[in-house]
Amino acid sequence: MANSKYEYVKKFEDDDRLPPCNWIVVRIDGCHFHRFSADHEFEKPNDKNALNLMNSCAVSMLEHFPDIVFAYGVSDEYSFVLKETTQFYQRRASKILSLSVSYFTSLYVMKWKEFFPDKELKAPPSFDGRVICFPKAKIIQDYLAWRQVDCHINNQYNTCFWNLVNSGKTEREAQEFLKGTQSKDKNELLFQQFGINYNDLPAMFRKGSCVYRDKVEETAKLDKGGNSIKRTRNKVVLAHIDIIGPKFWSEHQYILEEE
Amino acid sequence: MANSKYEYVKKFEDDDRLPPCNWIVVRIDGCHFHRFSADHEFEKPNDKNALNLMNSCAVSMLEHFPDIVFAYGVSDEYSFVLKETTQFYQRRASKILSLSVSYFTSLYVMKWKEFFPDKELKAPPSFDGRVICFPKAKIIQDYLAWRQVDCHINNQYNTCFWNLVNSGKTEREAQEFLKGTQSKDKNELLFQQFGINYNDLPAMFRKGSCVYRDKVEETAKLDKGGNSIKRTRNKVVLAHIDIIGPKFWSEHQYILEEE
Amino acid sequence: MANSKYEYVKKFEDDDRLPPCNWIVVRIDGCHFHRFSADHEFEKPNDKNALNLMNSCAVSMLEHFPDIVFAYGVSDEYSFVLKETTQFYQRRASKILSLSVSYFTSLYVMKWKEFFPDKELKAPPSFDGRVICFPKAKIIQDYLAWRQVDCHINNQYNTCFWNLVNSGKTEREAQEFLKGTQSKDKNELLFQQFGINYNDLPAMFRKGSCVYRDKVEETAKLDKGGNSIKRTRNKVVLAHIDIIGPKFWSEHQYILEEE
Amino acid sequence: MANSKYEYVKKFEDDDRLPPCNWIVVRIDGCHFHRFSADHEFEKPNDKNALNLMNSCAVSMLEHFPDIVFAYGVSDEYSFVLKETTQFYQRRASKILSLSVSYFTSLYVMKWKEFFPDKELKAPPSFDGRVICFPKAKIIQDYLAWRQVDCHINNQYNTCFWNLVNSGKTEREAQEFLKGTQSKDKNELLFQQFGINYNDLPAMFRKGSCVYRDKVEETAKLDKGGNSIKRTRNKVVLAHIDIIGPKFWSEHQYILEEE
Fold first, then answer.
1. Mind telling me how many Å the CA of D177 is from chain A's nearest CA?
2. Which residues bind Mg(2+) 1 (chains A, B, C, D) (predicted)?
C-alpha cells in the first residue's frame, strides 16, 4: 500500500525558516495564569515558590539548549534569546517555538512537587509562546529593557494594590485609589501607609530574573598533596540585576557578541 | 518610569493570523522519542500503555478545546483538526501551535503515573509541532488518509522487524532481510514464520487512533416510577477504525461539514 | 574569481510560494491616478478612452497569460483571477505579482497612443498590486461581487458629484449636498435635476468590465463550393454585465470550475 | 446598495509589512530578455544602448523615490537598495515590489525611443522582481559584491563566447571550448586570439553600473559682477566602479549609514 496518492498534502506545509543573522527571541507566557494562580493559592503580589519554579525551569532550558544565550523572566513570563547565528532546527520558527514551549511546560509539571510539596496540581498548566526576530544586539538589549521596565511598573503597582486590599479595601477601591498615581506617589504610599521601603523588597520581585552563562570559580578537588584545586567553569547562573543600564552588558559582552 | 522608550521593539512582532475559511491542522510529534522510548523501556513494536497515554491526552484535548473536531494519532504523533471557521485566538498561528503543544505536554506528564504506575519519568518528554492550513474538507480527509496509510506501512514493517529481532536476528540483519519486500511478502512472513495473522493484531496498532465527538446513548437516571431514562449526549469518543475509505466520513458528515 | 564568498546572501531570499488549491487574485491599482487623470485631462466622472485603454490591456493580459481565467476592472483598478491549480512560476507570490504588474504597465504605455492619439504621456504611469489567495470558488464570486458593488456605489456617487459641479456647485458644496443620501435619493436627484435616467448610462460605467474566454462562432472561410464555414473558437471577450447574481456564473461554470 | 455582505473577502488580504531596521533590496530582472534582446537585435555580448537605457531608468528611479539610496545594475537586472529605516508604504512588501517594478517598466517603455530611435518595440518588455531584507549594512555590501562578481564572471565568459562565435565557431563549439577554463585562461584567450586586453574594455561592461547620490560641484550662475558662483548639490550620479573592495564604501559612508 504505497502512500503516493495522498502525499500531495505535504505541499501545504510551508517553509518557515527565520531570516539569518537575526537574534531570535522565544517569549512564553502562562495561559490563564490569573485563574491558575488563584486555584493554587499563589501569594500576592509575588509568590516566591512560583517564581523559583519558573526560574528553575529557565535554568534547565539553558542547560538543555546550548543556543539560548540569555533568558529573562518576570511573573509567569519568560523570554529566551537564541544567538544570532543559531542553526537550531535550521531556524524553523515552528520547531523552535513548539520545542521551547513544550520542554518548558514539561519541566514545569515535573518540577512542581519540588517547589510545592504540599500542593497537588489541580489542572494542567500551559504556556503560549511567540517567536520574534531582532536584527541587532542593541535591539535585543532594548527588548530586554522593555520587559524589565514592565516588571518594575507592574510590581510597584501590584505591591500597592495588594497592600491596600490586605488592609481592608476592596479590589475595586484599591484600583480607584491608585488611578493616576505616579511612580513617586506609589513609593510614598508604601512607605507612609505600610512602612515599606520599596527598594528593600527582594530584587527578584523588583528586577525579575536573568539566566545566562558565566565563568564561575569552583573548588574542584584536592590534589595529591591535599591542596584544593580551583578551576573556572562556564555555568548557567541566575541573577536579579539591572539590565537596563549599560553596566551589565559591558561586563558581559560575550553574551550578545555579534559575528 | 514610562515604558515608551523601548516599546518600539513591539514592531518586530509579526501578524501571523492564518487565512480564513481553511481547516487548521496542528500536528505534534514526540521529540527524540526513539531515545525516550528506550529510556523508559517501551515495548516494541508497540507499547500499549504508551499509546493509551497518548490517546488519553488526545481525548482531554478535545474535551478542553471545543474547536478541535477530530484527532488522529499514531505512535508518538497526533494530528488535531480545528474547524474551518475557528476564531480560536483570532487564528494566530503561534498561539494555536504553542498552546496545543504546551497543553498536550502538560497532560502527558500529569497522566504519566496513571499509565506507568511503576516507572518514573527519567527526562522531560517534549513534542514539536507545526500548523498546516487546508482549504477544503476533501483535502483534510486525504491528509488523514495519508497519516493512516503511513501508520499501516510503518506498523507492518515494525512488526516484521521486531519479530525477526526477537527471534535472534541482529537489527542490521532484520533490516537487510526486509529490504525490498512488498506488503504481501510481509504478511506472508509474519504468518509463515511467526504464526501471526496480521489482521488479528489489535486495531489500535494497525489503524491508529481516532478521537472525535459522537452522539452516545446514556442511561441517565431513573424516573419517579423507577424506570431508567435514556438520553443521547455529545461525547468525545476514541475509535480504531478505517478513515481512508468513504464509510466513516459519510456516517459522520457533521465532523468536516463546510460552511 | 569564484563567487562563493558572497553567495551566503542568497539565504536571505525567502520562499514565497502560495498555498496549493487556492484561487489567486492579482489586483492592480493606478498609483496617484487622481493626479495622473488630472494631468491628462480625463473626463469626469468617466473617461471612455481611459477605460477602453485599461480594458484593452486586460484583454492582452488574458491573451498572454493562459492561467488567468477572469478579470474584472473598474476605474484605474483591475483584478486578475488565476485558476486554482495554476503552477505559474511555481505559484511564487513575488514572481506572479511583479510580472503581472510589469506586463500590464508595459501594455498601458505602449497602447497609450492608440487611445489618446492627441495626448502625450506627461509622466510615467504606474500601478501597485497585491496578491490574494481564496480557498473556494464561491469566495472568488463574492470577491468579484464586492468589486462590482463598489463600482456601482462609486459611479453613482461620482455621477451625481460631477453633475453638481458642472452645474455650478463647488466641489465642497457638492460633497456636502450628497452627504447621507441613499442610492434611491441619488437616482432621484439625477433624474429630477439633470434629466438623467441612471440605468440608461453606459453599462461600462455602471457595471465595470469583465474579461474572460468564451466560445465565439466565427465565419472561418469559404469551402471549395464557395460556402462559408462556421466554427466556434475560444476567444477572450469583454463584457459589461452583472456578476453579482447567479446567472452569469451558472452560464459560465467552466470559468471557476473546481478540481 | 451597501457592500457589507461581501466585505468579508478583505480578511483574505494579509499583512506583509517587512521587519523594521532592515535594509530592503528590490531586485528586478528582465523577463525572457534572451528572446527580447534577439527580437530587438541587441549587440552581443553587450549592447551599449540597452545598458544606457537601463541606467537611465535607474537614475530616474532614484530621482523619483527618495528612499532608494543605491542601485546596482548589470545586463537586464537592477538592484535597488532602500534605506534601513524607510517607511515607504509602511514597508509593505507588495506595495514596494509592485510600485518599483511598475515604475521601472513604465520608464523603460517611455524612454525606449530615446535610446533606440530607429527601432520599434515589437513586444511589451516586462520585469519580474523580488524583495529581500538584510539586517546589516555589511551584508548589503556583500550582496552588492555578489552581484558585481557575477557581472565580472558573466561578462568575461560572454566576451569570450561571442568573440569565438563571431570568428566562426558555432554556439555549441564555443561553449565546449570554454568549458572548464579559468579566469586567467579567458583573459589569455582574448588577448592571444582576439588582441583584446580585457581590462581595456569599457568599465560599464566589466563593472556594471552604480547609481547613488553624491555631492557635485556646480557652476550655478553669474553674480552681479559677472563672476561664476559655485555651489555643491546632492545629485544622482552614475558610475562604473569597484564596489567589492572597501574604498568606495569608506569614501561614501553616508550611503549605508546605520541608525
1. 40
2. 29-30, 76
